[in-house]
Design a protein that fits this description.
Layout (H helix, E strand, L loop, with lengths): L1 E2 L2 E2 L18 E5 L16 E4 L13 E6 L6 E6 L7 E8 L2 E6 L3 E4 L7 E10 L11 E4 L32 E6 L9 E2 L4 E5 L8 E6 L7 E7 L6 E11 L6 E7 L4 E8 L9 E9 L9 E8 L6 E12 L10 E4 H6 L4 E4 L7 E6 L6 E5 L5 E6 L3 E3 L6 E8 L4 E8 L1
Length: about 425
């Protein structure tokens, strides 16, 4: 007996069952007869045979030992024992209260965006490549934690509610993004001060291609102004922006100014050689508190340079103005951070786009590859966590401001981002 020209076996008789063939495969068979003296006949006719396609009808085994752990007010971690299959398990369907919420390849899944003090029922089903599905795993009922209620009028950590100490009080407000300026399609509501202010495209822009370039010291002509912001609902206003300087002499500066409906006040001043150096990106944050400033119904903000000539340039980009309620208070500290200095840290990372307008937050890390991440909301609740990859799906996050932590086992690096 020969298969595809190769000897298979020697048999007595005129029938033989060939085994070990592959499905959906063409084979050529022929036979040669031989007598007791060892004489062989000629080759028989060749028969071409195609085996049938394999049909997998065997379902995976049922997943077992489904359990929940690390349950918080809004998340819980599910894990289970893997199923087996005659060919192989491809994925698992995760069900929450009878509704499919995820399809994953592993045996670990973090459920997010849950409601505090609520009981949920979970089970999982295994699938194979042929579309066969197992039975449902054991069902578990898991109850999320109840967030503690603050009793001192200040929301700390994951506390909820407000106790103002009186018969009644309005709920805390914030954070609310009042303005974002990226300048990719225009001035984004800022007013062009004049000849020494211009929209710029180039590598001196921090985010995207465009920023606003200010130069010289020609007063309003060297400025950009944002008008008509209602700041009255908030206890604090946070202004965050990025900037880049070029050819500004030591001692020269630029300002962030605020108009409360009556007069202009310089709320932050940045001096070359002291607060910043040329040819370096910086991120600055300024906090205006209602204790110190009149947060007006028609508030205005202005960036203005006070240099010495038209070659002294400052580039303003990615301006975010956020209103914060009483429970979101962050103190009075202003900050300025060199982006270059941050990036020299082995654990630093870049995140983009920021704000996140779609589903994906991209992470570029200079640290090791065995890091984990945690996304925290503004009241300290963990919303999402897992092992770090270059892309994090934030589709389920509600619009607002969040912090993301990267952890390598020894150090933690935190940055802020906005989900739109």
């Amino acid at each position: 007996m020969y298969k595809d020209g190769g000897f298979v076996t020697n048999v007595i008789g005129t029938t033989y069952t060939v085994t070990g063939l592959s499905s959906s495969t063409l084979y050529a068979f022929h036979i040669v007869a031989r007598d007791a003296a060892g004489n062989s006949s000629g080759t028989s006719n060749i028969v071409n045979v195609t085996t049938d396609a394999f049909v997998d009808t065997e379902a995976p085994s049922t997943p077992s030992n489904l359990s929940a752990s690390n349950t918080t007010e809004t998340t819980t971690d599910l894990s289970w024992t893997a199923s087996t299959d005659n060919i192989g398990v491809t994925d698992y369907d995760v069900y929450q209260d009878g509704i499919l919420v995820a399809n994953i390849t592993g045996t670990l899944y973090q459920v997010i965006d849950l409601t505090e003090n609520t009981t949920y029922a979970f089970y999982v089903i295994a699938n194979d490549a042929a579309g066969n599905s197992s039975g449902a795993s054991n069902t578990i009922n898991e109850t999320t934690l109840t967030a503690p209620t603050c009793s001192d009028g200040i929301q700390n950590g994951d506390e909820t509610g407000v106790d103002c100490g009186g018969l009644s009080c309005a709920p805390c407000t914030g954070p609310t993004v009042l303005h974002q300026g990226f300048f990719e399609t225009g001035w984004d509501g800022w007013l062009d001060g004049g000849n020494d202010a211009a929209r710029y495209s180039g590598s001196n822009s921090f985010e995207g291609s465009y920023s606003i370039r200010l130069r010289d010291n020609s007063g309003i002509s060297s400025s950009m102004t944002l008008s008509s912001l209602d700041l009255t609902p908030y206890n604090q206003i946070e202004i965050s922006f990025y900037f880049y300087a070029n050819s500004i002499e030591n001692g020269e500066d630029f300002w962030l100014r605020y108009h409360d409906g009556l007069s202009w006040t310089t709320v932050a001043s940045y001096v070359s050689g002291i607060d910043f150096n040329n040819k370096t990106f910086y991120n600055a944050t300024v906090i205006l508190d209602a204790v110190q400033y009149n947060l007006a119904a028609n508030g205005q903000f202005r960036f203005q340079i006070d240099a010495s000539n038209k070659n002294d340039l400052i580039y303003i980009d990615q301006v975010t103005i956020t209103g914060l309620g009483g429970g979101m208070a962050r103190g009075f500290t202003n900050s300025i951070t060199s982006i270059n200095i941050i990036e020299s840290n082995t654990l630093d990372f870049l995140l983009y786009p920021n704000p996140v307008k779609e589903d994906i937050l991209n992470i570029k890390s200079k640290g090791n590859n065995n890091m984990s991440y945690r996304i925290i909301n503004m009241v300290g609740q963990t919303i999402l966590k897992g092992n770090l990859s270059s892309k994090i799906n934030v589709d389920n996050l509600k619009p607002g401001m969040y912090f993301i932590e990267l952890i390598d086992g020894e150090e933690i690096m935190t940055k802020k981002f906005i989900k739109q």
